[in-house]
Amino acid sequence: MPASARCRPTCQFSGWQALRLACRDGRLQMVQRLLDRGVVPNDDDIDPQGPTPMMLACAGGHLACVQHLSVHGASRSCTAAWADDDLAPNGLQVPDGESVRTVAAGGNHDDLVDFLDRSAEWCTALHHLTVVPAGRVRLLLRCGADVHARASAAGPSPLDLARALGASGRAEAGTGAALVLAAAEAWSPRSHSLFPTAARRRASTLLQLGYMMSAAFRGAEAAWTEVWRTVAALRARIKEAFAALTNQGLPPQEAAVQALEMARREPRKIPFAARTSLWKSRFQAAPA
User: Which residues form the ANK repeats (predicted)?
Assistant: First the structure.
């Protein structure tokens, strides 16, 4: 009996063990169900020397299983002595510290190697836009997922990947990529539902305030509302740019300067008709 098998008698039927078996056999629906129910793919405390679900999926060349494990943050490093485990493929020897890419390449799983290379710096679930369902993408965005998240300065962000999908015609309405592209725009009624709870609450408060203030512009309420909406969107753009820059490690003062400069370079133009109507109402209402 392998040493790793002797150390887990009480965990034989655990969710983690079930996940390993499902990944070894390429049972995608079971893998999805276990991950969605909270089974952690990196639970090394159960069997620190045995093969992880990710290692077994790579050994078997099960691309879809590897993709879903990656969405849930599965580690891509290998552990020592796992070739002695009863679940490991016969004769497979992988040095400790190597990545699962070595396992996939050893099995001549070229499509899997290509995915592992492309996704090496995908650090959030939102990066996996072709795997994560649109409903979950929406939920991630509403919970505050960062469309600008990067593993490194040179790594892609979810927004970069969404733009690439859009350029290749794969960001149709209703897809995760389309939702990320919409969430990256300045706030608008169309993108309101994609913002986190706090941002949606703040936007609603600002718009309510704008509608209340429109009473001072009798005859031009619609024009004032359009101007106020533009101001609110500009504030949202600056705040979003500031958050993205600070996440990249810039000091707050420098991030604030750059965020203002970015907003200045790409201003959201106020419709000319709205400006004309608004200022005309102000001059007409001014006392003689």
Answer: 14-46
